Amino acid sequence: MGDMAHAPQQRRRFLNSNATQRLLAFASLIGLIVFYSLASPNFFKFENMVAILIATAVTGILAVAVTFIIITAGIDLSIGTLMTFCAVIAGVFITMWHGPVIVGVLAAILMGGLVGLISGTFVSRLKIPPFIATLGMMYVAKGLSLIISGLKPVYFNDTPSFALIAMGSVTGAIIPGFNIPNAVIIFFAVALLSAFLLNRTILGRYTFAMGSNEEAVRLSGVNVDRWKTIVYMVGGLICGVAGVVIAARLNSAQPSLGQGYELDAIAAAVIGGTSLSGGEGTILGTVIGAFVMSVLVNGLRILSVPQEWQTVMTGVIVIFAVYADILRRKRA
Amino acid sequence: MELPASGTAQTIDDGKPILELHKICKYFGGVHALEDVDLALYPNEVLAIVGDNGAGKSTLIKTISGAHRPDSGEIYFQGRKVEISNPRVARQLGIETVYQDLALVNTLDVPENIFLGRTPTRLRWFVDKKKMFAQTREILERLNIKIPFLRDPVQNMSGGQRQALALGRAVAWGGRIVILDEPTAALGVREKSNVLTLIKQLKAHGVAIVVISHNMRDVFDVSDRIVVLRGGKNVASRPKEETSMDEIVKLITGALESVDIAHQD
Question: Is residue A254 within 8 Å of residue A271, measured between CB atoms?
């Protein structure tokens, strides 16, 4: 009752806080789409939209993974090469050992979880700064991918069903012509599940609480080390999903791929309003952030802007996003 | 999690201390932070611990709240010897601490702060928001704490509201002993008087309260008994009626040597 009376003020404060950045990111996304649509007739087409969705899927899944970690006031630089490592593991199980596809998929995801668990243990129990622990893990995962694969890509040519995991279309089977690739569906499913985890479960609430005031959470009797380890493990599991998706999309595990993906993912999370100082962030924001990045690059490509300049633009956008975050904080 | 009906555990007032410290010592390197400190806390009393900076006040309460382990000495809770090895153990005994920085999670809302570490759940994993909000309203109402916007992150609240919230959290869970570290330090006049009223209310509910404060006026306003620490030692314990601000200040500074240390507690 009292709550209802104060509703307008609550809404105002809500907008002032976390939603501003998300709104800004969303506005930029719409702005980009409108601009490109006017600039080129090739942009706003179903095929190109699908291309954007596919291009966003892998980075988007990784961005969701890293959002969990950044909310704890941590960082995970290993997500890109871990994704590749998981892809290679799928290749080992399916191509080298001729195991069933489902086993390869599960092995890849579980391996992601295991590596995340190890990173999390380094960070929470051994108190190694996340930046260093996951930087080390980035190299370890990269090296292991190269060793296991023998420096060569692992192809999934004998198992055509594997590629369908990313490039088949469940929606196309239901609604003919509406061929949204499964990679995109998986991305949205991971995002929805993650949003639920963050908002509705103990794990999610502890993730936010630890990121905002870890000491307070510890004093309240929560086993901070354990929960933080679990968060890194969840991040790792999601990287495993990304590994499966990228392997299925390329129909191969490319051991030299992966490095650089972590930066795109972190950029997407930051553009979407996840605060690098921890305690704040949303999956919706991260998803929007991931689309801002891929739409930006896709449009520049359609306008035939050289790739070097696409990279420059991405950098500028990231800096701008962080600056917007700082401005918002100052006002609050 | 079940909320106790009255909000505070029933304490049997049989004249025996609810908490007793015996010859507590704590060293940091070569520094004696606490040296043979004896302390008794009785139900329904507000005990003030005063002393200069570095006298050992914070170390002492951290020993009780489980943040520090003493190097030697014993702690008795209701006559039973206990080891308060971490904050969880302290909480299980019913010892709640409100730290000076309040230990609130700034980006979370009021219910999430009150339920920090004991979020009500369904099926063990899923946050029961409805229950959390309903119980929060109940707790705040019972303690007469007025916070209009439960959904706001607590960083938007005033100092007094934050202090009241931290206090409310401490007693909401049936805390029998509540330790307050400088509860009025950062507050304006009106907010300060609200918090002091709240402390008296808690005492009326049967909670034993330990207050650390630099502010002599607040100490004399709210406490029943005053313990003075100097150089890590307990140098005096005085019922409020039998002492004066002047005497306490002299005990703090060392201008007056303690005479009754032998027969106290």
Answer: no
Total structural domains within chain B: 1
Under-70 pLDDT residues of chain B? 1-14, 258-265
| Domain hosting residue B69, numbered range | 19-253
What pLDDT does residue B146 have? 83
Who's near A56: CB < 8 A, 6+ residues apart? A184, A187, A290, A291, A293, A294
Q: How far apart are CA A298 and CA A48, in angstroms?
A: 9
Inside any domain, residue B262: no
* Contact criterion met (CB < 8 Å) for A13 and B127: no
Token pair listed for A192: 């929805």
Domains and CATH numbers, chain A: 23-331 (1.10.3470)
Residues near B184 by Cβ (< 8 Å), separated by ≥ 6?
Answer: B163, B192, B195, B196, B213, B215, B218
Taking the CA of residue B83 and the nearest CA in chain A, the distance in Å comes to: 16
Kindly list the residues from chain B whose CB atom is less than 8 angstroms away from the CB atom of residue A71. none
Residues of A in contact with B119 (CB under 8 A): 202, 205
Contacts of residue B105 in chain A, CB cutoff 8 Å? 208-209, 212-213, 216-217, 279
Q: How many beta carbons lie within 10 A of that of residue A310, not counting itself?
A: 16
Supply the pTM of this predicted model: 0.86
Other CB atoms within 10 A of residue A232 CB: 31
Is residue B139 in a domain? yes
Is B99 an 8 Å CB contact of chain A?
yes
Upper half-sphere CA count for residue B86 (Cβ side, 13 Å): 8
Name the least confident of A62-66, A163-167, B143-147: B143-147
Q: Which of A199, A213, A215, A226 is the best residue to mutate to test the B interface, defined by the most B CB atoms within 10 Å of its own CB?
A: A213
For A12, A13, A243, A282, the CA distances from A18, given in Å and listed in that order, are 11, 9, 31, 9
pLDDT level of residue A146 (50, 70, 90 thresholds): very high
**Is ipTM > 0.85 here?**
no
CB contact under 8 A, A13 and B117: no
User: Is A213 an interface residue toward B (CB < 8 Å)?
Assistant: yes
**CATH number of the domain enclosing B210:** 3.40.50.300
